[in-house]
User: What shape does this take?
Amino acid sequence: MTMASNAPTPALNGNSRVQRLVRRVRELGFAATLRKLFADRIMRRSTSVIVEYQAGWSTVGDGAQSPPWLSFVIVRQGEPLPPLNDWLAWRDAGFAAMQAAGKVAIFALDDGIAIGCVWLALADHHDPVAREHYPVREREAYHYCWLVDPADRRRNVALPMCRYMLNNFANLGVDRSFGVVDRVNRPSYLIQLRMGFRERGVKVVHYHLFGWRWTAMSRYDGVLGTVNSKDRKMLRG
Assistant: This one.
């Protein structure tokens, strides 16, 4: 399951770009790959909501127990990253830059190899590429860059990883966490809702036009949920 990601993209050589393109066509299909390339390179507009979690809110969800082969590790600044599988490996330089900036990572491991991750900013988060800035107060965390290898998305990785993050907030000195979820990213939104996250009433609109990016934020009342009206009805029920 691919979660919302703000990870910086490292420079790639030509062969790596071709390999990623071939892998994307295999995963998404030709038409979906073309639509993604258009959105990434030419024009895109997306709407997200900010969700938050505070200490004491429910973290229990059915099926959240970890499979016996799955383990987790917290990596702080200055600590070595775990070995990354092929799907994550091209992000190595981006992860190193995030770690050097003081971010904290939680990696999901299969036999010691990372197959997924989530990153936490424990101080103000600034992304110059996406032109986003999120103030982070004391004992807060901004969570972002949720990633799970598509080959492992049906192996019960995302829910245990979210649960592990919440259960370790106290060890990280965190009482409250918040993050941005695209309204079309139903799996990420529903997993976080299931774990006790709630909408904060802040809408984030991302614009991308021929390489230029900017973000607009506004407040709203009620629940926006995902773009699927059936989901909104279910969540309100």
User: Anything to note?
Assistant: Strands lie at 43-54, 70-75, 104-110, 113-121, 125-127, 132-134, 140-148, 176-182, 198-209, 212-219. Residues 14-28 form the longest helix (15 residues). DSSP finds seven helices and ten strands in the chain. The two ends are 26 Å apart (CA to CA).
